[in-house]
């Protein structure tokens, strides 16, 4: 039983792409070089709910920035200078904690002279204690780009291991050398401290006693002749399942190498051309030349796939983790920022940006052998991209100079598509503790940021019931009542929802004559099937409060 539970837990943990959370930890790696002073580092935090308090703490000196955001959809940008970058291979306290009282998303951005690298900071619930490390040998990868390089840049890749908990954390770094000999190094991280190491292809696994965040980075990844940019990529804990996965690679990504990270052996196929990969992590030479065409890659188990090309390490989103809604956040809104959208070919016209359909001149390219198409969408400073009925994949792309790109998956706000946009709060029903009159019940619900329950369809009955059956059987007030003069039933809504009554669920013989009561109550007794009856408004019952669904909805923003 325990094993089953454990594997279910691991399974569900690894499978969520949802970027929302209330606790995050991250750090800024070195950008280009310690002596390039002009770099900027920033955290872009987007609130999803009204009245959100956000704390950003720099652990090195305990500086706390507390900001209260009244409005949902506010972007807080907290700037830091070069000094917060960690370039040394030591235990360090240059980490940043972001905590909030309601869900937010966090984007980390490092910039240098108009080039920006951003990545989504994973919320604490997506962090793990075990990470498979991609076998990255910089010398080998850089050599394969056939670029003219300066020797100074033959630096190894780096890993930043950040303790995510307020306790000591014992971390084991497992390596396998060229002769297949394994070796384990142990370090202890103090609360929220980080440790940076260099990797050259020999480090295979990080194991910690408590949760850690792991950033894969290189300060100066060769891009074009004699030029480079920093890369950052947050590793995700492995998913232990045997479910095949499909990855779509738009031609736009210009991939040079494919990196597979897995803890089990599997096949990796480009269409029907397969190769087998061992349980460790491997660079898979690209099958022939997929550079100019879009490709479909399938694997027999769940793996992490990264595309590598000069200046870029990009996580691919498996189709099983496509989401209904994403948030975009660009550091430099300009003609160089784009969203790359992958959608079902038959429903590309459903894709929405903010509250609008996509511009009709968007060109969709069908991806051979799959039911998907991709398109580049001109990006706005901030916005949502969503689909009302099907899941889509979205990457944020920044064009650096000389036609190279930098990118990462966009921030997923909700995995499930919703007809009205990006759902951040589903509807909820909450039963008040004390019995009171209908009028006091209405006040009680309003004071708790709810309104009296509105039950307008059969499936709503089931939702109310879901949350009430744990309570002792009783009776509760709902927002249905009679007009004083007309005696017609109507819903007393606090929003602009129509008050007409199109669905009723009366007990047999109900409602009674108006003299017997102008208000309606619901029986919270399973034996009475949760049906309604009329009742005098001054009688005492428990309030059944209702919170409507809430969405993140940017209206069509001005392009910048
Ligand atoms: C916060 O986000 C998580 C997903 O990361 C979601 O499961 C949860 O319901 C959200 N909480 C609230 C109160 O919206
Ligand atoms: C947010 O806080 C303000 C001031 O405390 C309050 O007036 C407002 O009703 C709150 N809004 C929500 C949606 O809770
Ligand atoms: C903490 O460090 C940051 C970044 O170096 C700096 O901006 C800030 O002034 C420092 N705060 C204190 C209290 O020293
Ligand atoms: C805290 O962050 C907010 C949002 O970016 C900024 O306006 C404010 O100046 C910061 N406060 C401090 C003390 O750094
Ligand atoms: C923010 O920090 C203050 C103390 O500086 C603390 O009282 C508060 O609980 C923190 N809030 C969140 C959301 O972390
Ligand atoms: C990295 O690649 C270079 C060149 O291919 C090779 O000489 C070196 O041994 C490799 N390093 C490791 C640790 O495998
Ligand atoms: C790779 O790194 C490990 C640990 O940092 C080191 O022991 C090993 O000698 C390195 N190998 C090469 C070929 O540089
Ligand atoms: C890979 O498989 C071998 C043999 O099947 C096993 O000894 C080794 O521990 C595995 N390595 C990882 C990283 O799972
Ligand atoms: C059930 O009630 C609790 C509070 O008692 C609330 O937090 C939760 O969101 C409700 N669930 C649903 C599905 O309405
Ligand atoms: C809702 O409708 C379905 C089918 O129309 C029916 O089986 C079910 O009993 C109804 N539920 C309620 C609570 O009325
Ligand atoms: C109820 O039905 C009327 C007429 O069909 C319609 O105009 C109204 O929008 C419906 N109300 C709701 C809440 O669905
Ligand atoms: C904030 O929430 C309200 C209520 O759900 C919604 O109407 C509004 O569009 C939201 N604002 C943004 C910017 O998402």
Automatic annotation (TrEMBL):
Residues 429-546 form the C-type lectin domain. It holds the Pfam family Lectin_C. Residues 1-16 form the signal peptide. SMART domains: CLECT (SM00034). Gene3D superfamilies: Mannose-Binding Protein A, subunit A (3.10.100.10). Keywords: Signal. SUPFAM superfamilies: C-type lectin-like. PANTHER family: IGGFC_BINDING DOMAIN-CONTAINING PROTEIN, VWFD DOMAIN-CONTAINING PROTEIN. This is C-type lectin domain-containing protein. It comes from Phoxinus phoxinus (Eurasian minnow).
């Amino acid at each position: 039983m325990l094993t089953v539970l454990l594997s279910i837990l691991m399974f569900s943990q690894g499978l969520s792409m949802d970027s929302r959370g209330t606790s995050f930890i991250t750090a800024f790696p070195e950008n280009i070089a310690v002596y390039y002073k002009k770099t900027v580092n920033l955290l872009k935090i987007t609130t999803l709910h009204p009245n959100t308090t956000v704390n950003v703490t720099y652990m090195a000196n305990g500086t706390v920035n507390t900001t209260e955001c009244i409005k949902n959809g506010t972007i807080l940008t907290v700037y830091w200078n070069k000094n917060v970058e960690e370039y040394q291979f030591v235990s360090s306290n240059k980490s940043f904690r972001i905590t909030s009282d309601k869900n937010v998303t966090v984007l980390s951005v490092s910039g240098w002279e108009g080039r920006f690298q951003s990545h989504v900071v994973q919320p604490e619930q997506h962090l793990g204690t075990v990470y498979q490390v991609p076998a990255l040998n910089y010398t080998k990868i850089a050599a394969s780009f056939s670029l003219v390089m300066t020797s100074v840049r033959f630096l190894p890749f780096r890993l930043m291991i950040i303790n995510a908990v307020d306790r000591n954390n014992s971390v084991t770094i497992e390596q396998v050398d060229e002769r297949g000999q394994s070796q384990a190094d142990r370090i202890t991280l103090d609360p929220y401290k980080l440790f940076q190491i260099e990797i050259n292809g020999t480090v295979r696994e990080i194991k910690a006693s408590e949760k850690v965040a792991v950033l894969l980075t290189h300060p100066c990844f060769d891009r074009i002749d004699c030029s480079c940019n920093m890369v950052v990529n947050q590793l995700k804990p492995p998913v232990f399942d045997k479910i095949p996965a499909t990855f779509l690679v738009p031609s736009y990504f210009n991939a040079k190498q494919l990196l597979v990270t897995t803890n089990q052996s599997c096949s990796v196929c480009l269409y029907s051309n397969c190769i087998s990969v061992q349980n460790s992590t491997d660079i898979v030479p690209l099958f022939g030349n997929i550079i100019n065409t879009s490709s479909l890659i399938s694997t027999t188990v769940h793996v992490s796939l990264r595309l590598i090309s000069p200046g870029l390490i990009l996580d691919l989103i498996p189709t099983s983790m496509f989401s209904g809604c994403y948030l975009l956040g660009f550091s430099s809104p300009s003609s160089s920022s784009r969203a790359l959208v992958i959608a079902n070919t038959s429903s590309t016209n459903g894709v929405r940006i903010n509250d609008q359909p996509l511009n009709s001149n968007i060109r969709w390219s069908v991806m051979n052998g799959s039911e998907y198409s991709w398109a580049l969408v001109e990006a706005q400073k901030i916005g949502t991209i969503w689909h009302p009925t099907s899941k889509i994949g979205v990457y944020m792309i920044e064009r650096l100079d000389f036609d190279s790109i930098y990118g990462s998956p966009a921030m997923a706000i909700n995995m499930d598509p919703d007809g009205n946009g990006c759902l951040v709060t589903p509807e909820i029903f909450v039963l008040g503790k004390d019995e009171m009159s209908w009028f006091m019940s209405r006040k009680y619900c309003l004071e708790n940021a709810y309104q009296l329950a509105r039950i307008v369809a059969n499936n709503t009955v089931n939702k109310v019931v879901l949350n009430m059956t744990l309570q002792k059987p009783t009776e509760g007030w709902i927002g249905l009542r009679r007009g004083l003069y007309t005696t017609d039933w109507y819903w007393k809504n606090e929003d602009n929802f129509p008050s007409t009554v199109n669905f009723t669920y009366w007990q047999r013989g109900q409602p009674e004559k108006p003299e017997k009561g102008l208000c309606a109550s619901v029986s919270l007794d399973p034996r009475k099937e949760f049906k309604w009856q009329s009742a005098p408004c001054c009688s005492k019952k428990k309030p059944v409060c209702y919170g409507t669904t809430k969405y993140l909805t940017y209206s069509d923003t001005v392009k910048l």
